[in-house]
Amino acid sequence: MLLRSPHARSRRPGSVPLSLLAVCATLAALLLGVGAPPAAAASSLPCDLYGAAGTPCVAAHSMVRALYASYNGPLYQVRRASDGATANIGPLSAGGYADAAAQDSFCAGTTCVVTEIHDQSPRHNDLTVEGAGGAGAADVGAPADALPVTVGGHQVYGLEISAGMGYRDNSTSGVAVNGQAEGMYMVTSGTHVNNRCCFDYGNAETNNMDTGNGHMDAINFGTECWFSPCYGQGPWVQADLENGLFQSDAGYSRNSSNTGTGPLPFVTALLKNNGQNHFALKYGNAQSGGLTTTYSGGEPTAGGYSPMHQEGAIVLGTGGDNSNGSIGSFFEGVMTSGIPTDAADNAVQANIVSAGYGGPTGSTGTLSPGSEISLRATTSCCTGHYIRHQGDAGVLSTVTSSSSSLDKNDATWIVRRGLADRSCVSFESRNYPGDFLRHYDYRLHRQPMDGTAQFRADATFCPQAGKSGTGTSFASYNYPTRYLRHYAYNLYIASNGGSHDFDSSTSWPDDVSWAVGAPWAP
């Protein structure tokens, strides 16, 4: 079969081409001086590197950037709620980063969900919203704006999976079947995980059912320990080979030093399997450094895994039978024909690091969307205290130049357009991508955006002149007489007088007035 080159990919019929918007966005970025360097050495992106090593990509999915230097087709498709129209979002240029401004323009005044993630490889193994399976009802698409991140200096959007969301392609081309060798990786996040089954990316059954041991070969990432013992708290990179999440041939971890990745905001998770008698697991910090191998050895010793019996479907966000209780983040991932060399894996990890996940936005100290800020109290007692998250609670805490990196990161927020009203603002955590400051039962929390109207309203604040005559006050979008306030070092939305202690009129104007300043995190 003649396969088209990746850059020759045509856009889907009926979708709205946004190339003109892409050009305008690029020119605007250049004029404003906020443009970032082009995609790393546009001659060798992950699929170029794997192809040169003799293990070409048979699937290449990304929300944030092209994975071939020559690719200039669609990355993903969004559908807006207002009229059901769809649009493909592509890179700003061949081999470049996603045109998030085009998505923002298309979805302005309404909400959008991601309906398709296009395969950049010539195989066209596109992922669409997953249907019902043996363990779960039909899924829904992820909200398109739930996971804003900065990659290579560009604001882009990742895919934030909540329970009940997932994507799949049951009719693929070139993906390993019946014991054939393959490799795969994904860039995910260690801050948006749970212990439910199963946040997977990779090879799965073609009928959305559990058809037996060895019928899957997918990366799993989360805190579910299927086979005890697992060491540490996770999350762990594991192999979902069906009927088990494997850290070794025995299932349980044979590596006591593998305590998981911890809460890294960006993680490279990698699996490769020769389909006969060997598989390997690796992980790395997608922002710096190399890969760590946590297992390299025989297939599981239980029956059915040696040889493997892969069926060749591709799944993202669920288990092979649509077990869909998991949460997770997806930014990019590929699958290869054959097992990549360690050298190729290392080159791909270096390219991922060079892509600039989670780098500075290029704007600081203002309430403009994309600006990184810290919010300082102006009450006389507390002028050295800042809004931060501690665990998932919003608190007021002292931060100084000698504070730890963790404290400084926890006190840094990225200003986003209001999730419920674009004329207002929302505050995204700097070190927990996709988590926003929102109120619940009047308390402020850091929580992942789930796309619901309730969350959007709770996480939206409307700036006003400071009630004390200085700084800025932030009215709750859905409780407009209540303002973001510190009280006893906790954070609330509070009225000026009321039945709660935190509604006390004493020092209320000062407590709801905040100084917007440069971020503590570098």
From TrEMBL:
Signal peptide from the UniProt entry: none
Segments forming domain Alpha-L-arabinofuranosidase B catalytic: 46-357
KW Manganese (keyword) present: no
Domain of life where this protein originates: Bacteria
Keyword Hydrolase: yes
Pfam families: AbfB, ArabFuran-catal
InterPro entries cross-referenced by the UniProt entry: A-L-arabinofuranosidase_B_cat, ABFB, AbfB_ABD, AbfB_ABD_sf, ConA-like_dom_sf
Location of the Alpha-L-arabinofuranosidase B arabinose-binding domain: 375-516
Keywords for the protein's UniProt record, in alphabetical order: Glycoprotein, Glycosidase, Hydrolase, Signal
Record-stated family: Belongs to the glycosyl hydrolase 54 family.
Protein's name according to its UniProt entry: Alpha-L-arabinofuranosidase B
